[in-house]
Structure formats: structure tokens, C-alpha cells
Amino acid sequence: MTSQEIKTLTGQYIMNTYGRFPVAIDHGEGATLYDPEGRAYIDFTSGIGVCDLGYGNQAWADAIAVQAKKLGHVSNLFYTEPAARLAETLCKRTGMSCVFFANGGGEANEGLIKLARKYSFDKYGKGRATIITLKNSFHGRTITTLKATGQEVFHQYFFPFTEGFRYADANDLASLKAAAGDDVCAVLVELVQGEGGVLPLETEYVQALKALCEERDWLLLADEVQTGVGRTGTLFAFQQYGILPDAASFAKGIAGGLPMSGVMAGEKCRHVLGPGTHATTFGANPVCAAAGLVVQETLTDRFLEEVTVKGSYLRSQIEAMDLPCFGKTRGMGLMIGVEVRAGYDKSEIAAKLIENGLLVLTAGPGMRLLPPLVITKEEMDQGLAIMKKTLG
Ligand SMILES: *Cc1c(COP(=O)(O)O)cnc(C)c1O
After folding, report:
1. pTM for this one?
2. What is the CA(92)–ligand 1 centre distance, in A?
3. Pairing relationship of beta strands 366-369 and 32-34 according to DSSP bridges
4. Are residues 214 and 327 in the same domain?
5. Span 328-370, pLDDT tens digits
6. Residue 256's beta-bridge partner residues?
7. Same domain, 144 and 200
8. Closest-lying ligand 1 atom to the alpha carbon of residue 261
9. How far, in Å, is the centroid of ligand 1 from the Cα of 263?
10. Which structural domain, as residue segments, surrounds residue 314?
11. What is the CATH number of the domain that holds 199?
12. pLDDT by residue (tens digit) across 280-327?
């Protein structure tokens, strides 16, 4: 099909819930994508932080093919090797104790919320179900995770929302204390707010928050759906903050492009969710888990150090270009935010870059770059050249 045919068919038969750019993608290689007509695009999005190994990765595709031929799905009523091995790897690399596998980020965060509420219910009984989240956060699109999201714009249309969320200012422990009360069981944070605009929390704040949570027996929950799996230059962002949350969610990059997510929990929460309390049919799918194992094998410590180096390179090059529309950059590893100066429109900038062959994202008030973690210097330079030519 041609790009135009795909767009027309999509317009007719797929629910119109996304503001799409006028580009159809057919295939990719490394960090370069191609439309059906063969036009190349340098990818600074990785499918919103998903395709950490880029496109056409041979080991990833082979592992999926082998596992699909062997066993595509069997349900969690039986044991399978790929999920067990992936859970082992995640725990050994983080210090967590156990994993629950799900399918998407919002669903994983629902798992965190259930874990926190049951932990508290088991210990203290009813009336301690409130979770504090941060303003400007994003936690998902289910009815509950919309409400967990600390942005009023998401609390529309779908009433009634789930009760039991209050919001505090990021990097402000006094604001969090003010939102607290006897009814609180947990605090849920993104260590780098993603959709909100790539805003890293301060290390001091996170460490003080961890201490406060321990003091009050609130669970500290990290939403690592976007920051997790190497994106920030460590396997999980919490490893750079020097804390181990009580539980953390992951999703986007975990299986390099197949739908998979999950919750990891520490020793304190190991037995909170027992048989019958939480489940999902597709969770721990062996094909997704086999893909996840290839991601884990690829993300060695050395590879992760490279992620940090690549991120610094991209940021310094962008700042050195001194484009009229861009201000400072921020972020961690290959999760990069670029400030858009007053008088410029982020969506227009994105549209222009995409038209010229560079795929980018927006977030909060600025641009967001999430290139595949395997992106080469050559591909980064190609992307930067497009940026300069388009916006200079
Ligand atoms: C993307 C994202 C989600 C939602 O994930 P889905 O897979 O779209 O449900 C939740 N939290 C954060 C931090 C995210 O970036």
C-alpha cells in the first residue's frame, strides 16, 4: 500500500484518538525508519521510548521467531521459562525481590496502586488508601491512572474517577507533607517526569522522600514506565538516585517493541499480592519475555555507560547549535528535553522536523527526544544536521 492508501484506510476504520503526523512507517534499520515509498527518517522517538534496540535487530527478531514457533502463549496457570528468567534478571540487577508481569504502562501502575492499598489494608485495615502523586505527572489512561496523573486536564469526561489521590508539588517536601494525612498509604512518582516535559526530580528530594516514606510506613512507588530499561543510562533511574523504592513499574522499553510491562517489588511487599488478588491473561507472555531477555543481554553495564555518553553528546550538540527556537536541554541519558523559547510552537517545530526527515516528540512545554539506545554517532549527526538545516 502507498502512504496515502494507508492514511485513508486508517481514517476510515481506526478510531480517531491520536493526533498523528502525516507519515506512514513501513520498516526500519538501526535508528532509521522508512516510509512505504522508501523515504528515510532518523528516529529520535523509538516509538515513544519503546524500541531501545532500534529496528531490524537480528538477535531480537530471532529470539521472537524461535519462541513463537515453540510456544506463543499458555497462560499463567502454568510455568514458562522465559518469564522466570526475565524476572530473575530484573531482580538480580536491581535488588528487587519479585516481579508481576502485565502488558502496558497504565496497567502496571494499576498493579502498583493495588499493591500499595493491599499492603496497607493487610497491616492497618480500611481508611488508609490514599496515594500522593506529583503535579505535572503522567501515570496512564485507565480511569484510575488518569486520576493518579497530577494534571487537571486529564480529569475530564470520564467521571466518576477512582477516589484516593492527592497531589503535591515536585521537589517540595513541604508540599508533600501538606498533602499527607492518616489516610495515606503510598507516594507514586516518576523520577524523571516524562510526558510532563522531561523534568528530573532532585536527588536530595528523592532521598528525603524515601526517608519520609519509611518513617510513616508509606510505600514509595516509582513509575519507571518511561525511565526504566536503560533509558536514563542505568537499568532503572532509581539506581542513579541511590534509593530502592518499595516497588516500581516498567513497560515501554522492557521487550524492545513487543507489549509487556510489570511491577517489581522489594522484600517488604513480596507476599502482598497472593493468589487470586491480581492477574492478567496475557501477562508474562513467553514471546514478549524472550524479547525482553535479548534486551537485558544487550543492556550490559558498558552499553549503559554509552547511553549516558550519547545523551551528553546530543545535548551538547543541540546547545552548541544555538538555534533561535531552542533554549537549554535537560534530562538523563537518552531521555532528553529541549526547552522551546517563547514565540515558538513545539508542535510546529516537530511537524517541520518530521517533514524534513527527523522524527521527534513533544512533552509538556518543550521537545522530547528518546532515540533508540543503539543509535550510532552517524545517525545522531544526521539527525542533528536535519535539525540545523530545518531550524537554523
Ligand atoms: C507511557 C507512560 C505510561 C502509560 O503507559 P501505557 O503503556 O501507554 O499504558 C505511564 N507512565 C509513564 C511515566 C509513561 O511514560
Report:
1. 0.98
2. 24
3. unpaired
4. no
5. 999 999 999 999 999 999 999 999 999 999 999 999 999 999 9
6. 258
7. yes
8. 7
9. 13
10. 3-52+300-391
11. 3.40.640.10
12. 999 999 999 999 999 999 999 999 999 999 999 999 999 999 999 999
